[in-house]
Design a protein that fits this description.
Strand content: 15-25%
Structural class: alpha+beta
CATH class of the largest domain: Mainly Alpha
Largest sheet: 5 strands, antiparallel
Number of helices: 10
Shape: elongated
CATH superfamily of the largest domain: Transferase(Phosphotransferase) domain 1
Strand order of the largest sheet: 1-2-3-5-4
CATH architecture of the largest domain: Orthogonal Bundle
Helix content: 25-40%
CATH topology of the largest domain: Transferase(Phosphotransferase), domain 1
Number of strands: 10
């Protein structure tokens, strides 16, 4: 059996047996295709989609099924099925940074504009894992001031992994403060809405870890949205200690605005808004209070027009 046929069969069996969601298989298949075609079950385990024992059992099942004529016919039919029509029609680029970029797109199924965060084809496997994790985590946070995630999948035409999100018409708070056109009361009310979103996330056991004006989007119709949950952590779950490159958020990304996620003892977040424990690289000490400190730094910038720390 050809490696691709084996991978397809593995994915189909995993989905049909309930071990894997169809969307997760699309992400894993994309990650597998970017590598030197290793055993696909290894990719599934690396991405945290399958436990090692389940992956081993699945490999044995594929081995036993490979000689079955009915299975061979199933693979042939699967390969002959044309790719589904593209649901999202790509538009202009909104921003890029690290291993991802954000574009506007048209959702042809519903007839609405959306923002697509696309992972670079050159992204390493750990970035694929983090990208998928970010989409799923953000999608779980159902709050009016958390940007809604519509879908995680893969574009048929290019094979790029995407997160489909609400397209925000507006600009980030950092830019609004810099332009100086909003009244103080309006900015403080927007921060209040952001605080409510963060309080909700904390109630769900999630810490953002990179709160700053640039990650608070202000919509043209009064919306306040906390974005870029790529560095967030679910309290009580083990920290991923592998260095992970930052993924883009909607809007411009500059070197001065960059964020980093690294292992214990190194830096996570944006230095100008960090609490002491975060600046010292004590990742295990970061909790809800760290987010509260960052929100206080945002208030400082609203009142003074500049970030609280520099250098």
């Amino acid at each position: 059996m050809e490696p691709r046929d084996r991978a397809v069969l593995t994915g189909q069996l995993a989905v049909q047996l309930g071990f894997l969601a169809a969307a997760d298989w699309e992400l894993a298949q994309s990650a597998w295709e970017k590598q030197s075609k290793p055993e696909v079950t290894g990719v599934l385990v690396s991405l945290g989609l399958l436990p090692a024992d389940v992956a081993t059992a699945l490999s044995r099942l594929v081995d036993s099924a490979a000689s079955n004529p009915e299975i061979s016919a199933l693979i042939a039919r699967s390969s002959a099925v044309p790719a589904p029509a593209a649901r999202y029609v790509p538009g202009a680029e909104l921003g890029r940074g690290g291993f991802s970029r954000v574009i506007e797109a048209s959702d042809t199924a519903i007839g609405r504009p959306v923002a697509l965060k696309l992972l670079s084809p050159d992204a390493p496997l750990d970035a694929v894992e983090r990208f998928r994790w970010e989409g799923r985590l953000t999608g779980r946070l159902e709050h009016p001031s958390v940007v809604p995630v519509h879908e995680i999948g893969r574009l048929p035409a290019t094979g790029e992994i995407f997160i489909a999100m609400k397209k925000i018409a507006g600009q980030d708070m950092h830019r609004v403060i810099k332009e100086g056109k909003w009244k103080l009361r309006r900015l403080v009310e927007a921060l209040r809405d952001a605080c409510r979103a963060v309080a909700y996330a904390h109630a769900m056991g999630v810490v953002h870890r990179d709160l700053k004006p640039a990650n608070i989007m202000l919509g043209d119709f009064g919306e306040t949205l906390v974005v870029d949950w790529g560095l967030a952590r679910v309290l009580g779950e083990p920290e991923d200690e592998r260095p992970v490159a930052r993924l883009a958020r909607p809007g411009a990304v500059s070197a001065a605005d960059s964020t980093h996620l690294t292992r214990e003892g190194e830096v996570l977040g944006t230095p100008a808004y960090m609490p002491p424990e975060q600046a010292r690289g004590r990742l295990a000490e970061i909790d809800e209070r760290s987010d509260v400190h960052a929100l206080g730094c945002v208030l400082y910038e609203i009142l003074s027009g500049r970030a609280p720390y520099s250098g």
